[in-house]
């Protein structure tokens, strides 16, 4: 890395944890992680500073003290449980405060501002970077975050990234649930389903972020989706994961999944979580393939195959399950 001082917001999150771990092997890189939550890994404690990005004064002080060469803005509320935009103030006010803090510190860049593929509903192909079709309040908050960056149009090199469905060690709901259900032998294929989606192994995502930072001058003002190519056929992927058990994933008719979704909707109405709802089933069965050609041109090839990502992820899940049992 040519950048010597990298500031990461949301470094205690899933992608941030993997990013800091990778930067730890790059000699000479000084990392500062700003996050309201403590790190997932004990090794990251020395670089963590507890800062709520909505606290402008605290954020301004942290940025000025560190004087970063590059900023990777990952901090966000990412669940879909919020009911109004104010529930996602970390995504809106946090981005606004960060833009202000960087200006105040006379930051020269580059900076990556992380958005989400959910600025558009699954299956929708946007005609431009500002063609939005969010289907959740979370997605709406990410649209507002993007609009804040575009309106500010900083003088330093800035890029907006939209992670797709990213998975791997240190991930959480919902993608860890997919792995756990398959590994438990409780997963079912939807008969005759061949849904394709853009997914991304987190090791590749980290490599993509660092490559974008490296070429930020040429990419200024661009919006790039983060993910792996080619697109993933979900039935093929679940079969690969099931092979670690091993078992053959059975198939069930679509009507059975419709029934499960009906039950899930009813339980959700009384505040009970259930792994299947109509919303989840619709997402599961909608092709959602994004244009990664700009990233392909930039990267050339990916550092990890899906098979390698599967193996590393399954091993991480098993290691952490063992650690939990040891603590009981």
Characterise the protein shown here.
Helix content is 43%, strand content 14%. The protein has 328 residues and is of the alpha/beta class. It is globular and about 60 Å long. Helix 1 crosses helix 6 (202-214). The strands form 4 sheets. A 7-stranded parallel sheet has the order 3-2-1-4-5-6-11, with helices on both faces. The chain has helices at residues 14-23, 56-66, 89-104, 137-152, 175-183, 202-214, 216-219, 234-242, 254-269, 278-284, 293-299, 306-327; strands spanning 5-9, 30-35, 48-50, 70-73, 111-114, 158-163, 165-167, 189-190, 196-197, 199-201, 223-226, 232-233, 251-252. The mean pLDDT is 94. The longest helix has 22 residues, at 306-327.
- Shape descriptor reads globular
Helix content: 40-55%
| Ends distance | 41 Å
Major sheet: arrangement of strands: 3-2-1-4-5-6-11
Main structural class: alpha/beta
Based on CA atoms alone, the radius of gyration comes out at: 20 Å
Portion in strands: 5-15%
Number of strands: 13
Topology:
Layout: E1 5-9, H1 14-23, E2 30-35, E3 48-50, H2 56-66, E4 70-73, H3 89-104, E5 111-114, H4 137-152, E6 158-163, E7 165-167, H5 175-183, E8 189-190, E9 196-197, E10 199-201, H6 202-214, H7 216-219, E11 223-226, E12 232-233, H8 234-242, E13 251-252, H9 254-269, H10 278-284, H11 293-299, H12 306-327
Parallel strand pairs: 1-2, 1-4, 2-3, 4-5, 5-6, 6-11, 7-10, 8-13
Antiparallel strand pairs: 9-12
